[in-house]
Amino acid sequence: MGAIVEKGKEPSVLTSTQDIIHQALGKLGYSDEMFELLKEPIRMLTVRIPVRMDDGTVKVFTGYRAQHNDAVGPTKGGVRFHPEVTEDEVKALSLWMTLKCGIVNVPYGGGKGGIVCDPRNMSFPEIERLSRGYVRAISQLVGPSKDIPAPDVFTNSQIMAWMVDEYSRIREFDSPGFITGKPVALGGSHGRETATATGVTICIEEAAKLKQLDLQQAKVIIQGFGNAGSYLSKILSERGAKIIGISDAYAALYDENGLDIEYLLDKRDSFGTVTTLFTNKITNQELLTKKCDILVPAAIANQITSENADKINASIIVEAANGPTTTEATKILAERGVLIVPDVLASSGGVTVSYFEWVQNNLGYYWSEEEVAEKLRSKVVDAFHQVVETARRHKVDPRLAAYMIGVRKTAEASRFRGWI
Ligand code: NAD
Fold first, then answer.
1. In angstroms, what is the span from residue 321 Cα to ligand 1's centroid?
2. Which of the residues 40, 151, 176, 347 could staple to 187 if both were Cys, CB 3.0 to 4.6 A apart?
3. Which residues approach ligand 1 with their CB closer than 6 A?
């Protein structure tokens, strides 16, 4: 039985992900039993985290950790700090992580975590206490060979450092492989901070070749100016592309002659906010419909929907964020000939270098920046062409092709283990 999508309504990110997984498993010849196993995480933990705030009061936060499937290996995925985190979103994100790990062929299943909070309104000591409290709450279920967290929206290498410190204290041994996205001084990998943006750039280069677009002449719009969006704007502008629009949670900046990216990078804060410093702004929705060659949603889910898909004015969309385009919008854009590089492929650079970080932690032997960059390029280029080839061979859109590649290994591993 497929995921249930109410007629006339945009499905939730979880429902639409389940629906495409159902289609992908069908194309691969798997039964509905396999879908029953893979449509939800095998483990879902909800925790309550009491945190002493700076004013002396105690606030109790809700957190989640989802482990989608561990047939291939330990589960892996980021922890998000955001006021709009929900249980369903965390579940969907863990399913996406399984797909990403399958696409770039790293030996993990998907995992994901989140805490309902707004770190923009918290002090650093409060964020530290929350991060440590989350690790204490989930410590029984996670570990270097069980489930390995990483950064995501509004979390960063400092938060990973507090988390690994807390885990090492609880377990009473130094365990850098418990978490990835750490500072290099704590066993982090070269290239991890920029990995997602580098992976997105590689996909943009390959997509531009397919569409015979010269990147040096290309006009690019990027929604979101956080870890993914800001590094991407820097890398692309250094390659000669013209970044004509960027945005954050509050507004967007647009100039058809190109924005001064160096200046904006210098002015952004650690949460990826920069537009608050300017008066000549437009809205995020206006930015998405401006004419450009390449549109990169790099913020949050559900940004391109059936409401605005027919107004999108780009020939290539590369999804750096998780779930920015709804199923309905994907159909509308495909009919209009827009090439969509799906999230599970485009943003797989982060988990790829997280895997490299974990391998280096396990080996106790560390690679140079060049070695990491070369290994990353090889994995993402390979994944990109496998998706294009699968889409061509099976006559399906790139998203379904990516899901077919992404789910195959976990389905096979589950079958070999005798689970189905
Ligand atoms: P981040 O927290 O560093 O930055 C998020 C950016 O999005 C900020 O500029 C913020 O202002 C903006 N934003 C937040 N809410 C918004 C809204 N409602 N409308 C418009 N903009 C909004 O996060 P990030 O790490 O850059 O992640 C961005 C996206 O990329 C997420 O979907 C994340 O899951 C995905 N992603 C990130 C990584 C990674 O390694 N960082 C890896 C894979 C996927």
1. 6
2. 176
3. 151-154, 196, 223-229, 247-249, 272-273, 284, 298-300, 320-322, 347, 350
